[in-house]
Specification:
This protein is α/β, with parallel strands linked by helices. The chain has a single domain (2-199, 212-231), classed as 4-Layer Sandwich (Metallo-beta-lactamase, Chain A). It has helices at 2-17, 67-77, 92-95, 98-101, 111-117, 200-213, 230-252, 257-262, 279-286, and strands at 27-33, 36-41, 45-52, 55-59, 82-86, 106-109, 121-123, 126-128, 139-140, 144-149, 152-160, 166-172, 177-185, 219-224, 228-229. It has a seven-stranded mixed beta sheet. Strands 10-11-12-13-14-15 form a six-stranded mixed beta sheet, with helices on both faces. A two-stranded antiparallel ribbon has the order 7-8. α6 runs antiparallel to α7. The structure holds zinc ion. The site of zinc ion has 7 residues, from loops.
Length: 290
């Protein structure tokens, strides 16, 4: 059963997008601050682009299949060389475009991303070969790093064991924009990849650290969902805390995950289950940890 669940988790983003015509995929571009844009790919995954005198820096590369459309939109913003590509973490909806977007760039990520992409990956029946060298991160951040680029001193920080073991967050101090990767599924239950070092308790702790550390007027860009304010992040965090308590309480009364699902103990959070992680999957995620 566990094997089947893992299989479903890993494949879900592909099922969701499998039927699309990738050449027609919609990309919504929003200016976050002068020189800094958010590109929302297929209404599903966010990419951030910084451009200026030094060239272009891209955060996350979205899906392999959306790369051509993504490059088209990046080139509307700037025709300068892409100097840096940052992968917030190892998942394919954030690294898939590395082979094109990162081809002539330095690729920055946590060591776990390099390790993951350097190995052959199995997705159901399919074997995905290891990425070529030029698409694998060559600048590794396992603590933190400052990067001066386009008049910003960009702060890159590793937060351990939330969504995966190697989540990076990226802060642009002048723009006051924080890119959170998949530590933010804005408005939805998050995916916690326990098979790649994620943990729901660490996930909440890391979100709390972000709430404590960054200013109240910060703009927050998650890997999925809309742009959030500090207050919205606080609300999201608090609602997740409540769901932990509901599942923990039910478990303490001896309820099984199946019973929790059948009784829909998280029905009050129905809307948060309307994206990738449903109410049922959120129960399955939390149960072993509470
Ligand atoms: Zn992810």
């Amino acid at each position: 059963m566990r094997k089947i669940l893992i299989f479903i988790f890993l494949l879900a983003p592909y099922f969701l997008l499998a039927q699309r015509d990738w050449s027609q995929i919609e990309i919504t571009v929003t200016e976050l601050s002068p020189g800094l844009h958010r590109l929302f790919v297929a209404n599903a995954v966010a990419v951030v682009v910084s451009h200026g005198d030094d060239g272009v820096l891209v955060i996350d590369a979205a899906y392999e299949q959306s790369t051509d459309r993504l490059m088209e939109e990046i080139r509307k913003i700037s025709d300068k060389p892409i100097k840096y590509l940052i992968n917030t973490h190892l998942h394919a909806d954030h690294t898939g475009g590395n082979k094109v977007i990162g081809k002539d760039a330095d690729i920055i990520a946590h060591p776990s991303v390099k390790e993951f992409l350097s190995k052959e990956q199995r997705r159901g029946e399919n074997i995905i070969p290891a990425f070529p060298d030029y698409a694998i991160p060559n600048i590794l951040v396992d603590d933190n790093m400052d990067l001066e680029f386009n008049s910003e001193k960009i702060q890159i920080t590793h937060l351990e064991g939330g969504h995966t073991e190697g989540d990076l967050i990226i802060y642009f101090p002048q723009a006051n924009v924080l890119v959170m990767g998949d530590l933010l599924f804005a408005g939805y239950f998050p995916f916690v990849d326990v098979n790649n070092g994620g943990n729901p308790h660490s996930f909440l702790e890391n979100v709390q650290r972000i709430l404590d550390h960054f200013p109240n007027d910060v703009t927050l860009v998650g890997g999925h969902g809309p742009v959030f304010s500090h207050a919205e992040l606080q609300t999201w965090h608090d609602e997740l805390v409540k769901t932990f308590a509901v599942v923990a309480e039910a478990k303490s009364r001896g309820m099984s995950p199946e019973q929790m699902k059948n009784q829909r103990i998280l029905q009050d959070w129905e809307e948060m289950g309307s994206f990738f992680i449903t109410e049922d999957r959120w129960i399955e995620t939390l149960y072993p940890f509470l």
